[in-house]
Amino acid sequence: MLSIPIEYYLILSAFMFIVGVTGVLIRRNAIVVFMCIELMLNAANLSLVAFSSYHGNPVGQIFVFFVMTVAAAEATVGLAIIIAIFRNKLTVNVDEINIFKW
Amino acid sequence: MIGFPILSLITFLPVIGMIIILFLKKEQINNIKYLTLIITAFQVILSVVLLANYNYSAAGVYEEGSFQFIEKFRWIEITGISWLGTVKVDYFLGVDGLSMPMVLLTAIISFIATISSWNINYSAKGYFALFLLLDTGMMGVFVALDFFLFYIFWELMLLPMYFLIGIWGGPRKEYAAIKFFIYTLFGSIFILLVMIGLYFSATETLADGSKVFTFNLLQLMNPSNYNYDGILSPFNPNNLRLIAYIALFAGFAIKIPMFPFHTWLPDAHVEAPTPISVILAGVLLKMGTYGILRISYPIFPDITRDLMWWIAMFGMVNIIYGALVALAQKDFKKLIAYSSVSHMGYVLLGMASLTSVGINGAIFQMFNHGTITAMLFLIVGVIYDRSHTRGLNDFGGLASQMPVYTGFVTVAFFAAIGLPSMSGFISEALVFVGAFGVESIRVLTMLSTLGILLGAGYMLWTLQRIFFGPLNEKWASLTDLEFREYAMFIPLSIIIIFLGIYPSAMLDLMNTSVNTLVQFVNTGFNVSSLSGL
Amino acid sequence: MELANLYQSINLIIPEIVLSIALIVLVIADLIFHTNKKIIPFIAGTGILVTAIFVINQFNYIGFAFSTATHTARSFGMLAVDSFGVFFKLIVIVSSFIIVLLSLASDEIQKTTDRIGEYYALIYGMILGMFFMITATDLILIYLSLELLSLSSYVLAGFTKLRDRNSEASLKYLLYGAVSSGLMLFGISLVYGLTGSTNLYIINTLIQNPHINLFTLSFATILIFAGIGYKISSAPFHFWTPDVYEGAPITITAFLSVASKAAGFALLIRFVKTVFVSYETNEGFWSLIEVFDWQSILVVISILTMTLGNFSALWQNNLKRMLAYSSIAHAGYMLLGLVVLSNQGLIAILIYFMIYLLMNLGAFLVVMLIANKINSEEIDDYNGLGFTSPLLSVSLAIFLISLTGLPPTAGFIGKLYLFIALVDAKMIAVAIIALLNSVVSLYYYVRVLKHMYLVKATASTPSIIPSTSNAILLLVLVVPVLIFGVYFQPLVEFAKDCIVILGI
What we know:
The complex is a heterotrimer of chains A (102), B (533) and C (504). Chain B has 533 residues and is mainly alpha-helical. In chain B, 68% of the residues lie in helices and 5% in strands. Chain B has one domain (6-265, 273-517). In chain B, helix 2 (29-52) packs parallel to helix 4. Chain C has 504 residues and is mostly helical. Chains in contact: A-C, B-C.
């Protein structure tokens, strides 16, 4: 069976990670920033799964399940906080949320 | 010997007083004042008891056996760490000829300063509580023989001093207080670093034969206690010992204050209330020079010998610079502050000579400067209380208005100038004789004599501007001294004149120790002779 | 995994189990007593005390729990129980208990009585996360416990919702936290890729292999440090600290500054010690594996952290914010204990933490009691308080002096031991920089004293007299700060018994 070499997965994962980090740095909408963070987590997930298959042990795949759970929890808390701040401020733009200097 | 721990008592008595004061009500101002007075008076009595029981022939300096009134017990002891060995800190007090004059001085000055504090009524409770804490710190520095303990007392003084200047001071008190605090803390971090460095360099052999790192100053003075590869070991070929010496010296020099670290002094003095100026000039400045004599000299004799020219040079700069700046002052208190800088220069010069005469003179000068400058600041305080100005040119002709006051002023000024029959003359003469005998610093000594001339200049000029000439009509209502002020001036004048006529009373006290110290510094830690160890 | 192993493992995590049970009890009690919630704080306090008993009991246990026997290497556990862990658990549990007491005294928290059950449940979530963080020896567990701690604290940072700044603090905390945990996770995935294992001990053996890709490993380690550095608020991951500390309810600020930081340090120390140290010399120095120079990087980070913290604190007018910067600086000092990579340094960190717990919580307690009354943390509102509220001001003065590190307070002992460790490791230049930093810190701590004492009280200066229970709590924190300053033997004795980190 022709298998895809691990490098391909890693390059994709690195690309996703970089997109995520760049997004966090340049986007100003809190929700978009949050999506970029999810992208970073998924990049890590992808490389974990790829490595798991490469090493032939299941630890990486188990890890991924945990990460997905955590990501869901984080999204829940995150969106709740963003809603709370939207009620106070009527904006989710991080540049306008600036009682303290960023 | 005395059957009770007299040094602990004399040191911690003020703290007990402070705790009692904290439980008194804010309104009981008189009780608080009398309590403070009783405690400081008791300190004076205890110091006289010390003096009466003092053995004039015991040397001290580096021999534990010949220290007097020793109190020593294990304070901290941590065992059972294989890679660290035992950690121990001793509670170790004792006096010798170097510290005995300073203990006397501290007791006397604290007592006088308490009398001088009598008209402080703004949060008097806080004032006297802090005052007593300061007293403990000062006394502790002079009796501690363990570096760790010394350092704790040394730092203990900072905070009370900050508040005493900052709360009860003059218009620029905040600036002066923080400047004093930061300068001295800056100095003490170097002391701390050297302390830790020394700790890792030398070991003390305990009774059971085990070797442990030590903070004990006397053990640190013994070259055979040093580990061969210790950071500050004399066998170490690197220059760390020199750097450590300079750091330690800088730490002490800030307190003296030595040029160029002196800039906190005029601010602190001008802003501080009179009694605090008295303490500052009378005792605190002496800690710097005492620290050098007690710690730098015997622990680093090799470096001391190398650097004696520099110490003398800084002494000379202090003398001349202080005198010149004093000459230019228009503020009475600032003038006295700069004269302090100048007079502490004599101490440095005497110390740098590394001769018995010179160091005797230096310690004697420390004591004399303590009493004389205390008196000078009290003099400023008296006139400031009455007229609310310190401008030298605002006065004139006060001699006829306040004859008794003028009499005391003359005594203090003549003592500061160094007129024969006053104590200042003896100590300055000893310093010059000692320093002149040493060829390498002879030129510096000759230059320093200029300081006497300048000193006479600014002192006499001040005397003339304030007390002679036509009476300024503005001050026609000034009254002469009152009872409380007599109580401050008379004892100080007696000490100044008595020691001028009979200096042996003080010199005998320190002579044995100074001889031992001089011999130790001139021969100790000689690396070439140590190499056989 | 056989049954005996499982039984033994459960024995080792009894404190965590007790905590979880207490958490459930708390949630149920919150439902049952929904009309009168006065009892909730007492349940929370009791739960913490019971847990404390089990933690203390753990001094007798030592070992790995939940060994994952794989075909690649010997079996090591998911978590390690050792005296080092017990020490940090005690720090966490003591500070949690004090935080419960603080919450009872805080007006800010008392205004949210109807949601008080959630508040304590979330605090329990944090404690649980910290407990696992302290003991974790597996990257999976490290990540999970870190997230458990973070998620609870995000919510708590914005708990009161009363002011804009609460939710803002919460959002900033969340964004920074999520980013740094994302970075950390990517780092973990790389380490897993390099070694094929998530167990720290196995990783330690595997990276001693000379064929390991050094660049990737260094990159991964730096990413992992992002996650940990965020928790201990070390530079350059400290940006959230001032905003969150200022915005969060003060009880939570205090909790984050002590407990959360303690857990982060425990994790960092365990991570460095188990992954990158090959053996311990007779003098107690740790020998690093020659793959990654943790030491120089930590030197730079710690100097940067303390310098940034101290210099930024100089200009702060809000006391909470100033204490936030000061806590950054203190993280820098504590990192020095790790920088030296020796047992001496470890002891110094442990001593520092015990003292830091007392003085930092104390400082926050005073700030909170004053804020209860004057509803402000601005330094100008402290003018003249020294004369009208002597107990609070004297206590705050003692805490601040201790934070500066002047004798005769305990803070001096903490600093002294750090510097002793530095000089012992011959890192004198670093010691000098750290000492100069503490001179800088003097300025801003004393600035508070200046406002309290050097400015005269006016008629409008409030007189704040704490209630008896608060005064007792205050004294419980002040007195040890003074006593340990002159008699620190018990601290050192205790720290010395707590430096066992399970290794190979």
